[in-house]
Design a protein that fits this description.
Elements: E1 5-7, H1 9-15, H2 19-25, H3 30-38, H4 48-58, H5 62-65, E2 66-68, E3 74-75, H6 80-85, E4 88-89, E5 93-97, H7 104-117, E6 121-125, H8 135-138, E7 143-145, H9 148-158, E8 164-169, H10 171-174, H11 177-185, E9 193-198, E10 216-219, H12 222-226, E11 239-240, H13 250-276, H14 283-298, H15 319-330
Parallel strand pairs: 5-9, 5-10, 6-7, 6-8, 8-9
Antiparallel strand pairs: 1-2, 3-4, 10-11
Length: 335
């Protein structure tokens, strides 16, 4: 097999929580499965029987189990803070955790715009309850549906030829309808369905697990929004399972961890500067403060959906350009 292939570890973890136990029960060696998941054993070095057994355990196809490296397990959005810190897992579930008025609906609209432009099928499942401002997101999808049957039929028709992005309100998770749809879709087509769940009431912030298991969590930051730094997605609190189990290149992971550490320190220093002034900081901390300030500003990015309301044009930053620029900032490069 191609050396550019690897296991879809995020999918395995999601479908088989006790993977080691399940693999052993199916006759596979635990060490072999572990080494395949971490990349110590390349896909090309695995027996076909082993891969077929893993696919059977996970209830997926070989095409779903085996993915390409360097972003094949993630959907690249061109949104800097997202692609670096909390990438969208292809075929996974993204949960928006936000208070009202911090830009989550705009983020959803932008996600739809960017994926639709890349050829994804896009659909929003309306909950039946009136939600102020949700039309800003629904205008960016190909289809809106009001019932589970409508959503199922649309996805079943499209899934044979295109990946699908499905957006929905948290109320459909609480009602159990989303889970019912996911179960029903297991037999409909083979291409991935990526689900984006939004909490329009802002209640998810106060709960430990507002959506159940997630592959990607975007925690919105009121403090960033108060300073008009959009998208106001926290680079510190937002997470993705794609950052685990060798799903990303080591370079990406190293840059992400370094940047997150710097931004944590910057947040601490910002509080001190606001209270006592930057001149009170040691020289080394002044450098950290300025780099963190520049990095935070870099992640504020114009959106395509905002072009009618703002003078800036929307920006797409490729993952490689994104990583390169973040390193330049952290190394003290000029703006």
């Amino acid at each position: 097999m191609d050396d550019g292939l690897q296991l879809n570890v995020a999918l395995l973890k999601k479908r088989v929580p006790n993977l080691t136990v399940a693999a052993r029960a199916a006759g596979l060696r635990s060490a072999t499965v572990s080494n395949l998941c971490t990349g110590k054993i390349p896909i090309g070095g695995a027996e076909v029987r082993t891969l077929a057994t893993l696919a059977s355990i996970a209830g997926c196809t070989m095409d779903e189990l085996i993915i390409r490296k360097s972003g094949a397990g993630m959907i690249e959005t061109g949104i800097r803070v997202i692609d670096l810190f909390a990438p969208v897992v292809r075929g996974g579930v993204v949960g928006f955790v936000a208070r009202p008025m911090v830009g989550q609906i705009v983020m959803l609209a932008e996600l739809f715009r960017r994926t639709r432009q890349r050829g994804f099928a896009t659909v929003f499942w309306l909950s039946g309850k009136e939600v102020q401002g949700i039309e800003d997101a629904t205008t960016e999808v190909e289809v809106t549906c009001s019932t589970m049957d409508e959503v199922y039929q649309y996805i079943a028709n499209e899934r044979g030829v295109r990946d699908v992005i499905l957006g929905a309100d948290r109320s459909l998770v609480l009602s159990g309808e989303m889970l019912a749809l996911q179960e029903k879709l297991k037999e409909a087509g083979t291409r991935p369905i990526t689900i984006a769940l939004i909490d329009t009431r802002g209640e998810s912030v106060d709960e430990d697990s507002p959506y159940g298991p997630l592959d990607t969590l975007w925690q919105f930051d009121v403090e960033l929004a108060s300073r008009s730094l959009y998208p106001a997605v926290s680079p510190i609190l937002s997470t993705s399972t794609i950052l685990e189990g060798a799903q990303l290149e080591a370079t990406h992971l190293a840059i992400q961890q370094r940047a997150r550490k710097l931004l944590r320190r910057y947040r601490e220093l910002r509080a001190l500067v606001n209270a006592f002034g930057i001149e009170k900081l040691p020289e080394s901390d002044i450098a950290n403060y300025k780099q963190g300030e520049q990095l935070e500003a870099y992640f504020a990015q114009p959106f395509y959906v905002a072009e009618p309301f703002r003078p800036e044009l929307g920006e797409w930053t490729s993952l490689q350009d994104n990583l390169k620029r973040v390193v330049e900032i952290m190394d003290g490069g000029e703006k």
